[in-house]
Write a structure and sequence with these properties.
two-stranded antiparallel sheet, 66% helix, single chain, globular, mainly alpha, 2 strands
Length: 233
């Protein structure tokens, strides 16, 4: 970057401050330091130059679009609740997106791409059960990242990245209760085998079963959002 370009960037710009606040808030929500239902207390969360809280308010709006924060009239902004309904909705979209990515990728996958997927599965296996929390999540999601990237569609990759952020909250929740999901590695390996055969039906079936098993294991531990669940009315 040129000297002139550096001179045009002011690291006190509100937009840059907002991005830092977005990142800090998102990390706190995903890691569970800010709990589901917890109120976002502006004065307690951040102290900004000049006492302005506008970057925080803008960050809250950004995180609302990601589904991490909910704002209610007269009640302020709160961390969105975890619920079985929300988890199923998110996984349904992931299934749709990843099956679409597989359709785009399956005819263009070469041996190098398939080998990359197999190596990712082997790296995750080599880590065994002794792996830290963040590394566990990255190992689990890395396989799906490779598949989505192989689609060649950047918009699909962008949407997938947003869904991953949302799912990490549920993965933190799951890890503290059921530990690392080692069975998922076998399911990843089965999907690679189906990709090698160019068997799209088997790939889609494997992805759907793989993602819904996560739901089946975690949903009974989550509250049901009666405002969203038609069966709860």
């Amino acid at each position: 970057m040129s000297h002139d370009a550096h001179a045009r960037i002011r690291f006190t710009d509100p937009g840059l401050i907002r991005e830092r606040v977005v990142d800090a808030l998102r990390d706190a929500i995903i890691a569970g330091r800010l709990k589901p239902g917890e109120r976002i207390r502006e004065r307690e969360l951040v102290a900004l130059p000049g006492g302005s809280r506008s970057p925080l308010r803008e960050a809250i709006r950004v995180l609302e679009t990601e589904g991490l924060i909910t704002s209610l009239a007269y009640r302020g902004a709160r961390v969105s609740d975890l619920s079985a309904v929300d988890l199923r909705d998110m996984l349904d979209v992931r299934i749709m997106l990843e099956c679409f990515a597989a359709r785009l990728a399956i005819e263009r996958l070469d041996d190098a791409a398939l080998q990359t997927m197999e190596e990712q599965v082997n790296r995750a296996r080599a880590a065994g059960a002794q792996v830290d929390l963040e590394a566990n999540f990255e190992l689990g999601l890395g396989f799906h990242d490779i598949l989505v990237a192989a689609s060649g569609n950047r918009k699909v990759a962008q949407i997938h990245e947003s869904l991953k952020r949302h799912q990490r909250r549920y993965q933190h929740f799951a890890f503290t209760r059921v530990g690392r999901d080692l069975r998922a590695l076998d399911e990843h390996a089965d999907i690679v085998t189906a990709l090698r055969r160019r068997d799209l039906a088997a790939v889609e079936h494997g992805l759907r079963a793989h993602l819904l098993r996560f739901y089946d294991e975690i949903a009974p531990l989550l509250p049901v959002d009666s405002a969203l669940d038609p069966d709860a009315r």
